[in-house]
Amino acid sequence: MSHDLQTTHAPQPNGSCLHVLLFQEMPGLWIGRGLEHDVLIEAPTIGQALRALVSLVVAHTAFDYRHKRAPLSAFAAAPPSCWNAFTSGTPLTLAQLGIEQPAAWQIVAAIAHGRPMAVAARRDAGVRASA
Description:
Layout: H1 3-6, E1 17-26, E2 29-34, E3 40-43, H2 46-66, H3 80-88, E4 90-92, E5 106-111, H4 119-130
Parallel strand pairs: 1-5
Antiparallel strand pairs: 1-2, 2-3, 4-5
């Protein structure tokens, strides 16, 4: 992660926490998804997914500061199914993958035991099945 992305001249938020859910979509495709702020990243490995998500959060935070906005305020929270998958998932620290915590955020990650299904997607699937 570039030093330029980690530092901004604006004040850093204190205690900003982002829970991150990691899950395998299919072999060779891992998804990293923020929960308080629904940012999403895809990568071939779990480590690359988490690194990319941290980089995205740092870069978007710097962008938001430059535009006088609260960090990641453009992103609503993830659906409840993602929070449920996080709660029942296996905790993973950034340190386990050799990733440093970004200065402005506390990233808390968990690996889901399965792919979370959004409630809306389930309803749509049911409608298609009966049509």
